[in-house]
What does this fold into?
Amino acid sequence: MIERGLLIVLSGPSGVGKGTVRKAIFSKDDVDFEYSISMTTRKPREGEVDGVDYFFKSKEEFKSLIEKDKFIEWAEYVGNYYGTPVDYVEQCLSQGKDVFLEIEVQGALQVKNKFPEGVFIFLAPPSLSELKKRITTRGTETADLINNRMTVAKEEIEMMDAYDYVVENDEVDLACSRIQSIVVAEHCKRTRIREKYQRMLEVE
Ligand SMILES: Nc1nc2c(ncn2[C@@H]2O[C@H](COP(=O)(O)OP(=O)(O)O)[C@@H](O)[C@H]2O)c(=O)[nH]1
Ligand SMILES: Nc1ncnc2c1ncn2[C@@H]1O[C@H](COP(=O)(O)OP(=O)(O)O)[C@@H](O)[C@H]1O
It folds into this structure.
């Protein structure tokens, strides 16, 4: 029987660098996880491709998928819906492939209820002032929204205890290596490697 893959969930406050770290991880050659492409009702940004960055859906389509129970989790975030399609994730896990989700905090907590065996990683900023700087330099928010995001970010940081790991995103490369090490360690904790040695002993 194939052992199920790991469900790896990367979450954390807006602006901490989740998208940046996720893209850096998937640009590496030695990464062996599947990325679950989310569905969203937000409009594509310049350069974004349907089916690569997101599956872009209308609100009606998204709501009908909610009714059909097609999401592991979904959340409304800054006026748009975002959700993780259940079929792709289930298919990968049952084939023994590891799946990586990069989602905001409300969604991550829903996934934890459904998949408590998942590996939940909270990406944390080196400091609140650095977080504010990142949100500001990204330039997608007005001053009012930045303060709003900071208030939400503080509430989200308080939820880090619900996670298995906290990874500081001081430097992107360091954050990526920490996450990759966590996945390796989680595999060692589970049975896959033990089974390999047990089989070796049986042959002896
Ligand atoms: N709950 C949930 N959040 C998601 C999903 N996909 C992306 N997100 C989060 O939605 C937030 C907004 O993403 P996006 O519109 O791409 O803008 P960003 O703030 O530049 O990353 C980010 O925190 C993402 O991590 C999903 O499927 N479910
Ligand atoms: N380790 C880092 N050091 C400095 N800036 C970073 C780092 N990680 C991300 N950033 C910057 O912070 C901003 C927010 O990153 P982003 O990936 O959009 O965050 P999130 O997806 O969590 O909302 C971007 O301008 C990004 O370039």
Observations:
- The pocket of guanosine-5'-diphosphate (ligand 1) is lined by residues 14, 18-19, 38, 42, 73, 75, 77, 82-84, 102-104, 107 (CB under 6 Å).
- The longest strand covers residues 71-77.
- The CA atoms of residues 151 and 180 lie 30 Å apart.
